[in-house]
Amino acid sequence: MNQNTWNLNFRAVLNMKLHVFEAPIVNKSVLWNSHKGILLALTLLLVTIIPLSTNKNLPSSLPNLWKNTTNLKTVESEKKCDVFRGNWVPKSERPYYTNDTCDMMFEYQNCLKYGRPDREFLKWRWKPDDCELPLFDSAQFLEIVKGKSLAFVGDSVARNHMQSLLCLLSNVSHPVDVSPKYNLSYDFKRWFFADYNFTVARFWSPYLVESRDADQNGFSANSLMNLYLDEADPSWNSAVESFDYVVFSAGQWFFRPQVYYENGQITGCFYCQQSNITQILNSYGYGKVFQTVFRTIMGLKGYKGVTFLRTFSPSHFENGDWDKGGNCARTAPFTKEEMKWKSFVVELHKAQVEAFKAAEKEGMKRGLEFKLLDTTEAMLMRPDGHPNHYSPRMNVSVADCVHWCLPGPIDTWNEFLFHILKTGRKDTH
C-alpha cells in the first residue's frame, strides 16, 4: 500500500504500532546506582537528625514535609537542584484532571475510558533527591506564557506531551482548536488560549530531519527509510521561527531500518540488512539528527525563542516484542534498585545530551537559550504508565507500551517544564 492512500484510521494505527518497533541491538544493561539517604534537620531547638530512605514505601505525608524544609532554602540553592534525579513516592493528591474533565486527549491514551481497572498508576509523584518539584499551577503557567507561543516538534509521544499540557491548562482556560484557520492537516495542530493570547502548536516530524521511503514495496511497519542526517525536516525548520518556546523530541521511529545520508552520500545504515553498506548503531544517526536540529534552529535569523530538548522516552515491553505479544501489565513503578538502563537507552540518551550540551554552549555566544527536559530516568521507572491494551482495539495482540496514559506519569513532564519556566534557570545535566 502506498503511503499516499492511507486513511485517517490507518494513520492512527501507525501512531500506535510503528512507533514501538524495537530491534534487538544489545542485551547488556547498566544498573543505575541508587542514591544515598538524605539527612534533614527538622527542629530549630533540638538537633535531631532523621535519615530518610528514598524508596516507594515512603509515607504519603512526605511531600508536605519536604515543602516545609525547602521553604528554608535560598533561591540560589533551589536553582542548583537537579530535579531530574529522584524517585517516585506515594501521593495523596488527586490527578490534575480526568478523562471527564478534559476533552482534548487522544483516544489511544484515554486508558480509563477503555477499561483500565486499576488506579495505582495515578498515585505516585516524582520526588527529586535534593529538593521539591512544585506542583503544576495552571494559572501561574498561563501567566508566564501570556502573549507567547509554544511548539512541540516530534513524533506521537510529542503529541502525547502536548495533550497532557492542554488538559492541565484546561482547568483554568479552555483552548480553541484554530487548526482550520491555518489549513493544517491531522498531523499539525494549533490551539489558542484566547484569555491569555497563548498558542500551543504541534509539528509532526518523527525523524526531525528529511526522510524518504526507501523500500520498493512501499511503506510498512518494517520498511526501510532513508534519513538525511544533515538536512532538517522542512515541515518545521522555518515554521518555528516565530515561536517563543520550542520543544524537540523523537525516539521510537529510530528503531526502524534506516540508511543514513550525509552530504548526499551514504555513510552507513542501521538494521538495513544490506551487506554493501556499513552497519552502525542507531545512536550514531540519533546524535547527528539532534546536531542538525540545533544547528538549524540557531541558523534561523528571526528566531529568539527558548529551545528545549525532551530526552528519550523508553518503552516497557515484557514477554515479547511489540509485534510478538509483548505487553506492559505492571501496576507500580520500579524502584531504583529494580530499574535497569538498557545499553541502547544509555547510548541514545548520551548521543542527544552531548548534542544538547554543544548547542547550549554555542547558543550562549549567540544569546539563545537551550533547556534540558531530562525525562528518561524518571520514565524508565514507570512501566505501569502505558495504555497496554486499554485503548481502542485496532489489533488485540498489539499492546501500546510506548505512549503514556492521560492522566498519568507524563504529566510530570509539564511539572518539569513549569519549574524551568518559573525559575528561569539553567538545569543541571
UniProtKB/TrEMBL annotation:
Transmembrane helix is among the record's keywords: yes
Ribosomal protein among keywords: no
InterPro entries listed in its UniProt record: TBL, TBL_C, TBL_N
Annotated ranges, domain Trichome birefringence-like C-terminal: 133-419
Record-linked Pfam families: PC-Esterase (PF13839), PMR5N (PF14416)
Residue ranges occupied by any Trichome birefringence-like N-terminal domain in the UniProt entry: 79-132
One of the record's GO cellular component terms: membrane
GO molecular function: O-acetyltransferase activity
Localization: Membrane
Residues forming coiled coils: none
Topology of this chain in the membrane: Single-pass membrane protein
Principal place of residence: membrane
UniProt keywords, alphabetically: Membrane, Signal-anchor, Transmembrane, Transmembrane helix
Family classification: Belongs to the PC-esterase family. TBL subfamily.
Record protein name field: Protein trichome birefringence-like 19
Gene name tied to this protein: LOC111486964
